[in-house]
């Protein structure tokens, strides 16, 4: 029986050429698998037909937009996940979603190898292969661009020599990856980190410097899950899509950063994630109202580690699964409404309301009706600072400089 290879297929030049390239290099039949995570572009049926026309023995397409939103974007929202405190893991979240479909297709079709179109310099090769090995350790992974030196000029030549049904004349100056949670742009003139991005780079967001009226929105959550926008019930996917439009129109979610890649290099990335940033901003503020102080402090540490694990391709790791349990528990009381004004590239919260609120007006107020017993504070401070006071006395006895410049 001829060996079979499952290929993560996008419908673009590189993965279309990879179908025939893999067949020539390995002698295997190729099954193309395309997964729709809200990246837009061509119809899935068009992509499926192209895969067959390019030589795939079979092609599968999956509409995974709701799955991606519910099972991958939502955990990131509840985790307030921002890699290096800025990047909402746009590409990193989509890879494990695609991996699940690749593994399922490999088992369905009896394939022993999974192929992807990543280079040897990026994070995605790790995300695909670490994910596949976690779900199906028996599967082998190959990457034609990395493993068989399938450069772009070779891909174009192969495409033209074999009359493959894929356009080869237009070459974008950028490398772009996008899904419903956001869009990532790199390479081209952006690789010079002194160059400012031009407006042509952006697609999900409008120029925040353009004068326009502000947009006020109310986002409702139940246990950390966005369930309504301006009182209208929404699914997680609908919440992201709606806020992509509204927050995007205000220029929210533009990120220009030099990030630390897993492979050890620094890379300049342009991201735009209007819905993601709007939802995370609202969720963070609702947590400020509903999550107890010590839990909130510890959760911020967990959020950072959770984001690093996802960025590094360890979605299916034991630690990631354990942290998921903590994040679910921490969101138990994150229920309520957040009102914010979106304008000029910023989402600014100006109202909070929750039946689970820990904010007590009578304790917080400085006016008549204050129920906070200020007489207790003197003794509290004495005890709270006692250990530092005793240590300072010891340093003083020993003649150590206590940082007073004396």
From TrEMBL:
Domain Arginosuccinate synthase-like N-terminal: 4-165
Pfam families attached to this UniProt entry: Arginosuc_syn_C, Arginosuc_synth
Occurrences of domain Arginosuccinate synthase C-terminal (ranges): 174-390
Enzyme Commission number(s) from the entry: 6.3.4.5
Reactions catalysed: L-citrulline + L-aspartate + ATP = 2-(N(omega)-L-arginino)succinate + AMP + diphosphate + H(+)
Binding-site list for L-citrulline: 87, 123, 127, 175, 259, 271
Compartments in which it is found: Cytoplasm
Pathway given in the UniProt record: Amino-acid biosynthesis; L-arginine biosynthesis; L-arginine from L-ornithine and carbamoyl phosphate: step 2/3
Keywords attached to this entry: Amino-acid biosynthesis, Arginine biosynthesis, ATP-binding, Cytoplasm, Ligase, Nucleotide-binding
Source superkingdom: Bacteria
Quaternary structure note: Homotetramer.
Protein name according to UniProt: Argininosuccinate synthase
Gene: argG
